[in-house]
Specification:
The complex is a heterodimer of chains A (about 110) and B (about 120). Chain A is mostly beta strands and about 110 residues long. Chain A contains no helices and ten strands. The model of chain A has no long low-confidence stretch (mean pLDDT about 95). Chain B contains no helices and eleven strands. In chain B, the strands form two sheets. In chain B, strands 2, 4, 5, 6, 9, 10 and 11 form a seven-stranded mixed β-sheet that branches. Chain B is globular. Chain B starts with a strand and ends with a strand. The chains are: A mainly beta (about 110), B mainly beta (about 120).
Chain lengths: ~110, ~120
């Protein structure tokens, strides 16, 4: 079962910030939060990941709450090409390795 | 471009055919993965290879047979598939499939498989 809960869908106006929430209330102390997105029928594209601190890269920012039970992915200036399904994933450690547990994601639609 | 390529991009096969999917990574990674994505279902991990050794098989039927001849190439051999095996098959690679650190997987574009 997925360890994350995300809204099924969201809309965002082009040029505005897109804020995608994710709940992961059962996350353990050493489990990372990863974000990927999947544009229709393509492979998932890595966006960003974090453990405790907020992170920023050229694509997005990741804000993780202090208790680590939720996070928000921020696309600062959404474009039409950002329309995709966004997956919030907790990377679960198991027996010296790990698993990505994918959920059903948030379908983001950027509107012109 | 993620540095992970998959061929073919589309494949239609009959239930009695034998075919193979190919994945190649140009990232210098040591771990490779096969995932299956069926319509309206989350991605499911099928197999993991770490340093050319198979380390995970998530109860995948024997009609799917993986092969990893070196750390850059991964194959999925298919035989006597069923229509319910129709899906998007995704390959991914990462530096090493280990719990420590923040190993990140990079996905290829996928092969869209249709079984008639």
């Amino acid at each position: 079962d997925a360890k994350t809960t995300q809204p099924t869908s969201m809309d965002c106006a082009e040029g505005r910030a897109a804020n995608l929430p994710c709940n992961h209330s059962t996350i353990s102390g050493n489990e990372y939060v990863y974000w990927y997105r999947q544009i229709h029928s393509q492979g998932p594209q890595y966006i960003i990941h974090g453990l405790k601190n907020n992170e920023t890269n050229e694509m997005a920012s990741l804000i993780i709450t202090e208790d680590r039970k939720s996070s928000t992915l921020i696309l600062p200036h959404a474009t039409l090409r950002d329309t995709a399904v966004y997956y919030c994933i907790v990377r679960v450690s198991a027996s010296g390795t790990y698993k990505y547990i994918f959920g059903t994601g948030t379908r983001l639609k950027v509107l012109a | 471009e993620t540095g992970v390529t998959q061929t073919p991009r589309h494949l239609v096969m009959g239930m009695t055919n034998k075919k193979s999917l190919k994945c190649e990574q140009h990232l210098g990674h040591n771990a490779m993965y096969w995932y299956k994505q069926s319509a309206k279902k989350p991605l499911e991990l099928m197999f993991v290879y770490n340093f050319k050794e198979q380390t995970e098989n998530n109860s995948v039927p024997s009609r799917f047979s993986p092969e990893c001849p070196n750390s850059s190439h991964l194959f999925l051999h298919l035989h006597t598939l069923q229509p319910e095996d129709s899906a998007l098959y995704l390959c991914a690679s990462s530096l090493a499939h280990l719990a420590g650190g923040s190993d990140t997987q990079y996905f290829g574009p996928g092969t869209r498989l249709t079984v008639l």
